[in-house]
Amino acid sequence: MVAARVAAARGAAVARWAGELEVRTNAEVPGTVLRRRRWKLPDPVTAGLRVRLDRGELSARGFDRVLRMAWTVADLSGLERPGEAELNIALELRRGSWQ
């Protein structure tokens, strides 16, 4: 079951970035791409991350890493795009407090 979800998630990432980038995983996507209009998540979805960025709790590099992880969480969940819940999961994973 887990292997099938991982395979599907990897397939989703490959399909998403094919033709645009020479990458195979979300982890390889440059942050600048994730902030482009086509892939940029709506402001209400990223509001919590932006607050952490503004407070200095998260660096710009960390912001991009959370975005990449959120795309992976969305892929594992079979979602087309990450939402606020996926960003929160990604942030918890980054902080090491995911349970």
Structure commentary:
Helix 1 (2-17) crosses helix 4 (60-76) and helix 4 (60-76) crosses helix 5 (84-95). The protein is 63% helix and 0% strand. The protein is mainly alpha-helical and 99 residues long. It has one domain (2-95). The chain is globular.
The ordered H/E elements are HHHHH
**What is the radius of gyration?**
13 Å
Strand runs, count = 0
Q: What is the CA-CA span between the terminal residues?
A: 20 Å
Q: Tell me about the largest β-sheet.
A: none
The overall pLDDT average reads: 93
- Which residues form runs of ≥5 with pLDDT under 50? none
Structural class: mainly alpha
Quick recap:
The chain is mostly helical and about 100 residues long. The chain contains five helices and no strands.
What is the secondary structure topology, with strand pairs?
Blueprint (H helix, E strand, L loop, with lengths): L1 H16 L13 H4 L8 H13 L4 H17 L7 H12 L4
Kindly list the characteristics that best describe this protein.
single chain; 99 residues; mainly alpha
